[in-house]
Amino acid sequence: NVKYDYLIVGSGLFGSVFAYEANKAGKKCLVIDRRNHSGGNVHCQNLEGINVHSYGAHIFHTDSLQIWKYVNQFADFNHYINSPLALSEGKLYNLPFNMNTFYQLWGVKTPSEARSIIEAEVNSSNFKTPANLEEQALSLVGESIYKKFIQHYTKKQWGRDASCLPAFIIKRLPLRYTYNNNYFNDRYQGIPIGGYNLVVNKMLQNIELRLSHDFFKDRSFFESLAEKIVFTGKIDEFYQYQYGKLEYRSLKFEHEIHDIQDYQGNAVVNYCDLTAAFTRIIEHKHFEFGTQKSTVITKEYAINESLNSEPYYPINDTKNMKILKRYQCLADKESNVIFGGRLAEYRYYDMHQVIASALKKASDEQWK
Ligand code: FDA
Fold it and tell me: Which NCBIfam families does the record cross-reference, listed alphabetically (predicted)?
């Protein structure tokens, strides 16, 4: 009766990489997904001939040559470099915080001039152990940068004042004393030519895939199908929320088609003030150097989780981490279930990290 070696719940990057590797090793896999498309959160929809990132902007970056070569098997990548802008009090600034930003803020032209302003501000904040996110940010970057770029943006992101948020949310706020607007420090970066769907479709091309199938709607049936389960959904849902629900911050996306060639001249513009309710506007064609006649933009809003919203950012505070530990104890006892990916591990993963993790879990199997 057992028809498959692996039932893979979720066709996001974790599930798709695992399925690809298992299939290559001659294992029979069934991939199911509760959504009506594969790819999980890297999925794109085609609007006006533009790949629109349905679940938020996705820029591939990695420092690992192995992971870079791995993804390049499935698509060629373009030379997109992420250089976001920030709009604050009517003016545009370069991100990440670098000499261009400091010049725009204070007119300073040399790293030593910028350093002395920032050091003076940081020293005057004088927090030995920051008690909240506001104090943490002030002690890392000083008052000017905090007020212009962090204070209100954070409030929109988390729905609470920075002074009421835990300091651990911001561990580092890198300051770059060169004129370099490349957001990432990684050696390799780009967007797959043809879009992320192409990558995932190639991974899954020889594998049975059932879309719009929810594991929990017919759990015992699905469990009976395979020797092992690779579960990439929510770990608390897997255990019927018996220790409580793990909390997430969610997002709302509003896509708009505009009958002009270029809306904002850049893929990503952050909106730092409270006057705009959204946190950023993404103009998707710029990820691909698109030349279409029209353009598609997405306004991104950070919202509380509700029944219909997607879980995006895990809230890794003490309360949730305690709950997670209890679920992990149950998971450790499972001999036929592999938990992987952002929902099953309840952690923020970048794409290169989730691919590395799936490759590791696949190699741990040794395809016995
Ligand atoms: P993912 O969520 O993609 O897949 C899980 C799948 O399981 C989903 O398709 C879901 O429908 C399915 N599923 C769940 N429960 C199920 C059930 N019961 N039955 C059947 N199916 C079920 N990374 C990066 O490197 N660069 C970037 O720029 C970004 N940008 C970015 C923006 C935003 C807003 C977010 C939230 C995240 C990013 N990321 C990112 C991270 C990136 O999205 C992430 O690394 C991967 O999508 C994670 O892939 P997973 O397979 O783990 O989860």
Answer: UDP-GALP_mutase (TIGR00031)
